[in-house]
């Protein structure tokens, strides 16, 4: 168990599944919904869900600026799917006015895999973790990364072959897919190691 407290942003999306994954590997995650709760965590998971809804709820809850600032100040963050979108500096196919916390110098394309493949599973080779099953649900992909961003996984078959689906820069980790929806907790372990080292 790490002595660091990991929060899960609990405004919208599959935050319960992330909390369960973290508990399964011996962590004691706390849900973060208000600014004072954010102050009590050393790291944050931003779940999958819907990035425009998350942006609006974060704004209403007066969480948008506080989270943005903690990310900019170097807090370790792990975002999945909508969480990845929230961490990206730029979005292609954003909703009108849609904003992100930012922090990762990447461009993501929302709903990139198209209607025909709204939801699918795909074997992924994840650098530093190994082979795993990627669960994609109306997922974004990473259209481009700036220098210094490490590409950890790409799609290896089908029409989207080569597309980037996992990245890391320093304390920021993001995946297009949902490790929290599987019983394989190695990506969460990877994040916990990152948090410990931070
Ligand atoms: N499963 C997900 O998180 C989907 C993300 C969603 N398509 C969005 O734009 O936010």
From TrEMBL:
The keyword Lyase applies. Its EC number is 4.3.3.6, 3.5.1.2. The keyword Hydrolase applies. Pathway: Cofactor biosynthesis; pyridoxal 5'-phosphate biosynthesis. It comes from the Bacteria. Keywords: Glutamine amidotransferase, Hydrolase, Lyase, Pyridoxal phosphate. The active site is at 81 (nucleophile), 178 (charge relay system), 180 (charge relay system). Coiled coil: none annotated. L-glutamine binds at residues 49-51, 110, 137-138. Pfam families: SNO. It catalyses: aldehydo-D-ribose 5-phosphate + D-glyceraldehyde 3-phosphate + L-glutamine = pyridoxal 5'-phosphate + L-glutamate + phosphate + 3 H2O + H(+); L-glutamine + H2O = L-glutamate + NH4(+). In the presence of PdxS, forms a dodecamer of heterodimers. Only shows activity in the heterodimer. Catalyzes the hydrolysis of glutamine to glutamate and ammonia as part of the biosynthesis of pyridoxal 5'-phosphate. The resulting ammonia molecule is channeled to the active site of PdxS. HAMAP family: PdxT. Belongs to the glutaminase PdxT/SNO family. This is Pyridoxal 5'-phosphate synthase subunit PdxT. It comes from Catenulispora subtropica.
């Amino acid at each position: 168990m790490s002595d660091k407290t990991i929060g899960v942003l609990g405004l919208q999306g599959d935050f319960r599944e992330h909390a369960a994954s973290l508990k399964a590997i011996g962590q004691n995650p706390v849900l973060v919904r208000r600014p004072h709760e954010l102050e009590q965590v050393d790291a944050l998971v931003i779940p999958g869900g819907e990035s425009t809804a998350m942006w609006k709820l974060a704004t209403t809850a007066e969480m948008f600026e506080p989270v943005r600032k903690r990310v900019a100040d170097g807090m370790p963050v792990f975002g999945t799917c909508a969480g990845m979108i929230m961490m990206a500096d730029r979005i292609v196919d954003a909703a009108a006015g849609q904003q992100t916390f930012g922090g990762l110098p990447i461009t993501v394309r929302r709903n990139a895999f198209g209607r025909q493949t709204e939801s699918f599973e795909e074997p992924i080779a994840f650098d530093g973790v190994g082979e795993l099953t990627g669960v994609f649900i109306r997922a974004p992909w990473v259209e481009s990364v700036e220098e210094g961003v490490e590409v950890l996984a790409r799609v290896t078959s089908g029409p989207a072959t080569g597309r980037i689906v996992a990245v890391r820069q320093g304390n920021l980790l993001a995946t297009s897919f949902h490790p929290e929806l599987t019983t394989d907790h190695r990506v969460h372990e990877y994040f916990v190691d990152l948090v410990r080292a931070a």
